[in-house]
Amino acid sequence: xxxxxxxxxxxxxxxxxxxxxxxxxxxxxxxxxxxxxxxxxxxxxxxxxxxxxxxxxxxxxxxxxxxxxxxxxxxxxxxxxxxxxxxxxxxxxxxxxxxxxxxxxxxxxxxxxxxxxxxxxxxxxxxxxxxxxxxxxxxxxxxxxxxxxxxxxxxxxxxxxxxxxxxxxxxxxxxxxxxxxxxxxxxxxxxxxxxxxxxxxxxxxxxxxxxxxxxxxxxxxxxxxxxxxxxxxxxxxxxxx
Length: 241
Hints:
Layout: E1 3-5, H1 6-12, H2 18-26, E2 30-32, E3 35-36, E4 43-45, H3 50-53, E5 54-56, E6 59-60, E7 68-73, E8 77-78, E9 86-87, E10 104-105, E11 113-120, H4 123-130, E12 138-144, H5 152-157, E13 174-179, E14 182-187, H6 194-201, E15 206-214, E16 217-218, E17 228-230, H7 233-239
Parallel strand pairs: 8-9, 11-15
Antiparallel strand pairs: 1-4, 2-3, 2-5, 5-6, 7-11, 7-17, 10-11, 12-14, 12-15, 13-14, 15-16
Helix pairs in contact: 1-2
Protein backbone atom coordinates (compact mmCIF):
# COMPACT_ATOMS: atom_id res chain seq x y z
CA UNK A 1 0.00 0.00 0.00
CA UNK A 2 1.34 3.41 -0.95
CA UNK A 3 1.96 5.97 1.75
CA UNK A 4 2.67 9.70 1.81
CA UNK A 5 3.77 12.33 4.27
CA UNK A 6 0.71 14.01 5.72
CA UNK A 7 1.95 17.54 5.00
CA UNK A 8 2.89 16.74 1.41
CA UNK A 9 -0.38 14.94 0.77
CA UNK A 10 -2.52 17.77 2.08
CA UNK A 11 -0.42 20.47 0.41
CA UNK A 12 -0.76 18.71 -2.95
CA UNK A 13 -4.51 18.49 -2.37
CA UNK A 14 -4.73 22.24 -1.99
CA UNK A 15 -5.15 22.55 1.78
CA UNK A 16 -2.24 24.98 2.14
CA UNK A 17 1.53 25.08 2.37
CA UNK A 18 3.40 22.47 4.40
CA UNK A 19 3.93 25.07 7.11
CA UNK A 20 0.20 25.78 7.20
CA UNK A 21 -0.52 22.06 7.40
CA UNK A 22 1.79 21.76 10.44
CA UNK A 23 0.01 24.69 12.05
CA UNK A 24 -3.31 22.91 11.48
CA UNK A 25 -1.89 19.79 13.11
CA UNK A 26 -0.56 21.83 16.04
CA UNK A 27 -4.05 23.22 16.50
CA UNK A 28 -5.61 19.75 16.65
CA UNK A 29 -7.50 20.26 13.40
CA UNK A 30 -6.34 17.02 11.72
CA UNK A 31 -7.59 13.69 13.02
CA UNK A 32 -7.33 10.07 11.86
CA UNK A 33 -9.90 7.64 13.22
CA UNK A 34 -10.74 10.24 15.84
CA UNK A 35 -7.14 10.66 17.04
CA UNK A 36 -5.34 13.97 16.56
CA UNK A 37 -2.30 13.91 14.28
CA UNK A 38 0.23 16.37 15.65
CA UNK A 39 3.20 15.37 13.47
CA UNK A 40 2.55 16.61 9.92
CA UNK A 41 5.63 14.68 8.72
CA UNK A 42 4.01 11.37 9.65
CA UNK A 43 3.58 8.96 6.73
CA UNK A 44 -0.02 7.94 6.14
CA UNK A 45 -1.05 4.79 4.20
CA UNK A 46 -3.19 5.85 1.24
CA UNK A 47 -5.97 3.36 1.91
CA UNK A 48 -9.07 3.71 -0.28
CA UNK A 49 -11.14 4.56 2.79
CA UNK A 50 -8.77 7.30 3.99
CA UNK A 51 -11.15 10.13 2.98
CA UNK A 52 -13.72 8.63 5.36
CA UNK A 53 -11.25 8.31 8.24
CA UNK A 54 -9.10 11.44 7.95
CA UNK A 55 -10.70 14.74 8.85
CA UNK A 56 -9.31 18.23 8.31
CA UNK A 57 -10.98 21.00 10.25
CA UNK A 58 -13.77 18.58 11.11
CA UNK A 59 -14.59 17.82 7.45
CA UNK A 60 -13.84 14.57 5.58
CA UNK A 61 -10.73 14.57 3.41
CA UNK A 62 -11.23 15.45 -0.25
CA UNK A 63 -10.92 12.61 -2.81
CA UNK A 64 -7.40 11.21 -2.98
CA UNK A 65 -5.17 11.75 -6.03
CA UNK A 66 -6.27 9.60 -8.92
CA UNK A 67 -9.80 10.97 -8.99
CA UNK A 68 -12.08 11.04 -12.02
CA UNK A 69 -15.39 12.82 -12.16
CA UNK A 70 -18.18 13.51 -14.59
CA UNK A 71 -19.42 17.07 -14.96
CA UNK A 72 -22.62 18.18 -16.65
CA UNK A 73 -21.09 21.08 -18.53
CA UNK A 74 -23.52 23.95 -18.98
CA UNK A 75 -23.62 26.26 -21.97
CA UNK A 76 -21.47 29.37 -21.81
CA UNK A 77 -18.46 27.97 -19.94
CA UNK A 78 -15.11 27.11 -21.48
CA UNK A 79 -12.81 24.11 -20.98
CA UNK A 80 -9.82 26.31 -20.23
CA UNK A 81 -7.81 27.74 -17.37
CA UNK A 82 -7.19 31.15 -18.93
CA UNK A 83 -9.87 32.27 -21.40
CA UNK A 84 -12.22 35.14 -20.58
CA UNK A 85 -15.64 34.31 -19.18
CA UNK A 86 -16.84 31.34 -17.20
CA UNK A 87 -14.55 28.32 -16.93
CA UNK A 88 -15.44 24.71 -16.11
CA UNK A 89 -12.84 24.69 -13.34
CA UNK A 90 -14.83 27.36 -11.51
CA UNK A 91 -17.60 24.78 -11.08
CA UNK A 92 -15.31 22.71 -8.82
CA UNK A 93 -14.56 23.44 -5.15
CA UNK A 94 -12.01 26.22 -4.94
CA UNK A 95 -9.46 24.05 -3.12
CA UNK A 96 -9.55 21.50 -5.95
CA UNK A 97 -8.17 24.12 -8.32
CA UNK A 98 -4.92 24.14 -6.32
CA UNK A 99 -4.28 20.40 -6.50
CA UNK A 100 -1.05 18.87 -7.81
CA UNK A 101 -1.17 17.09 -10.14
CA UNK A 102 -3.90 19.40 -11.45
CA UNK A 103 -7.36 18.28 -12.49
CA UNK A 104 -7.75 18.51 -16.27
CA UNK A 105 -10.60 18.00 -18.69
CA UNK A 106 -10.55 14.79 -20.73
CA UNK A 107 -10.86 16.39 -24.13
CA UNK A 108 -12.95 19.51 -24.54
CA UNK A 109 -16.45 20.73 -25.26
CA UNK A 110 -16.70 24.15 -26.85
CA UNK A 111 -18.41 27.05 -25.12
CA UNK A 112 -21.73 26.49 -26.88
CA UNK A 113 -21.81 22.70 -26.30
CA UNK A 114 -23.27 21.21 -23.14
CA UNK A 115 -23.23 17.75 -21.63
CA UNK A 116 -20.97 15.01 -20.34
CA UNK A 117 -17.42 16.11 -19.58
CA UNK A 118 -14.87 13.94 -17.78
CA UNK A 119 -12.19 15.47 -15.55
CA UNK A 120 -9.24 13.76 -13.86
CA UNK A 121 -5.83 14.26 -12.28
CA UNK A 122 -4.69 10.86 -13.59
CA UNK A 123 -2.61 11.63 -16.67
CA UNK A 124 -2.29 8.01 -17.75
CA UNK A 125 -6.06 7.52 -17.64
CA UNK A 126 -6.66 10.77 -19.49
CA UNK A 127 -4.40 9.72 -22.37
CA UNK A 128 -5.89 6.24 -22.41
CA UNK A 129 -9.36 7.70 -22.93
CA UNK A 130 -8.44 10.24 -25.61
CA UNK A 131 -6.00 8.00 -27.51
CA UNK A 132 -7.15 7.42 -31.10
CA UNK A 133 -6.26 3.76 -30.58
CA UNK A 134 -9.01 3.46 -27.97
CA UNK A 135 -11.71 4.40 -30.52
CA UNK A 136 -14.08 5.34 -27.70
CA UNK A 137 -17.49 6.38 -28.98
CA UNK A 138 -18.92 9.79 -28.07
CA UNK A 139 -22.59 10.51 -28.71
CA UNK A 140 -24.02 13.97 -29.32
CA UNK A 141 -27.63 15.14 -29.52
CA UNK A 142 -27.83 17.60 -32.38
CA UNK A 143 -30.39 20.30 -33.16
CA UNK A 144 -30.18 21.49 -36.76
CA UNK A 145 -31.14 24.67 -38.58
CA UNK A 146 -32.61 22.84 -41.59
CA UNK A 147 -34.47 19.53 -41.95
CA UNK A 148 -32.45 16.44 -42.74
CA UNK A 149 -32.68 15.27 -46.34
CA UNK A 150 -32.57 11.55 -45.61
CA UNK A 151 -29.17 10.54 -46.96
CA UNK A 152 -27.06 11.85 -44.09
CA UNK A 153 -26.82 8.52 -42.27
CA UNK A 154 -25.36 6.91 -45.36
CA UNK A 155 -22.91 9.74 -45.98
CA UNK A 156 -21.62 9.66 -42.41
CA UNK A 157 -21.82 5.87 -42.07
CA UNK A 158 -19.47 4.90 -44.88
CA UNK A 159 -16.69 7.23 -43.75
CA UNK A 160 -14.48 9.18 -46.10
CA UNK A 161 -16.12 12.57 -45.59
CA UNK A 162 -13.57 15.36 -45.93
CA UNK A 163 -13.69 18.36 -43.63
CA UNK A 164 -12.71 21.77 -44.90
CA UNK A 165 -8.98 22.39 -44.47
CA UNK A 166 -8.09 18.76 -43.69
CA UNK A 167 -6.38 16.11 -45.78
CA UNK A 168 -7.43 12.99 -43.87
CA UNK A 169 -10.99 11.67 -44.35
CA UNK A 170 -13.25 10.98 -41.40
CA UNK A 171 -13.91 7.54 -40.00
CA UNK A 172 -17.47 6.18 -40.19
CA UNK A 173 -19.98 7.75 -37.79
CA UNK A 174 -23.48 6.65 -36.76
CA UNK A 175 -26.48 8.93 -37.21
CA UNK A 176 -29.80 8.24 -35.48
CA UNK A 177 -32.66 10.46 -36.61
CA UNK A 178 -35.24 11.54 -34.02
CA UNK A 179 -37.07 14.18 -36.03
CA UNK A 180 -36.70 16.52 -39.04
CA UNK A 181 -34.08 18.68 -37.28
CA UNK A 182 -33.23 16.40 -34.34
CA UNK A 183 -30.63 13.61 -34.40
CA UNK A 184 -27.91 11.84 -32.45
CA UNK A 185 -24.44 11.45 -33.94
CA UNK A 186 -21.90 8.99 -32.56
CA UNK A 187 -18.24 9.50 -33.49
CA UNK A 188 -14.97 7.86 -32.45
CA UNK A 189 -12.65 10.73 -33.32
CA UNK A 190 -12.15 14.05 -31.59
CA UNK A 191 -11.26 16.57 -34.24
CA UNK A 192 -11.72 20.29 -33.70
CA UNK A 193 -15.46 21.14 -33.72
CA UNK A 194 -15.96 17.86 -35.56
CA UNK A 195 -19.73 17.45 -35.26
CA UNK A 196 -20.44 21.03 -36.29
CA UNK A 197 -18.06 20.75 -39.25
CA UNK A 198 -19.53 17.44 -40.36
CA UNK A 199 -22.98 18.93 -40.76
CA UNK A 200 -21.52 22.06 -42.34
CA UNK A 201 -19.83 19.81 -44.91
CA UNK A 202 -23.25 18.52 -46.04
CA UNK A 203 -24.86 21.95 -46.10
CA UNK A 204 -26.55 22.12 -42.69
CA UNK A 205 -25.88 24.10 -39.52
CA UNK A 206 -25.79 22.87 -35.91
CA UNK A 207 -27.82 25.11 -33.64
CA UNK A 208 -27.65 23.08 -30.42
CA UNK A 209 -25.16 20.41 -29.37
CA UNK A 210 -25.20 18.23 -26.26
CA UNK A 211 -22.97 15.22 -25.45
CA UNK A 212 -24.84 12.54 -23.53
CA UNK A 213 -22.56 9.49 -23.70
CA UNK A 214 -18.88 8.54 -23.68
CA UNK A 215 -18.24 4.85 -24.36
CA UNK A 216 -20.90 3.06 -22.34
CA UNK A 217 -21.15 5.84 -19.73
CA UNK A 218 -24.33 7.94 -19.93
CA UNK A 219 -24.90 11.39 -18.47
CA UNK A 220 -27.40 10.75 -15.63
CA UNK A 221 -30.74 12.45 -15.99
CA UNK A 222 -30.58 13.64 -12.38
CA UNK A 223 -27.23 15.41 -12.77
CA UNK A 224 -28.14 19.05 -13.36
CA UNK A 225 -26.11 21.41 -15.51
CA UNK A 226 -23.13 22.68 -13.51
CA UNK A 227 -23.10 19.71 -11.13
CA UNK A 228 -20.51 16.94 -10.95
CA UNK A 229 -20.22 13.44 -9.55
CA UNK A 230 -17.24 11.26 -8.66
CA UNK A 231 -16.90 8.06 -10.70
CA UNK A 232 -16.45 4.64 -9.17
CA UNK A 233 -14.24 1.98 -10.83
CA UNK A 234 -17.34 0.37 -12.35
CA UNK A 235 -18.25 3.70 -13.97
CA UNK A 236 -14.75 4.09 -15.39
CA UNK A 237 -14.96 0.57 -16.83
CA UNK A 238 -18.12 1.63 -18.70
CA UNK A 239 -16.11 4.23 -20.60
CA UNK A 240 -14.11 1.45 -22.22
CA UNK A 241 -17.03 -1.00 -22.59
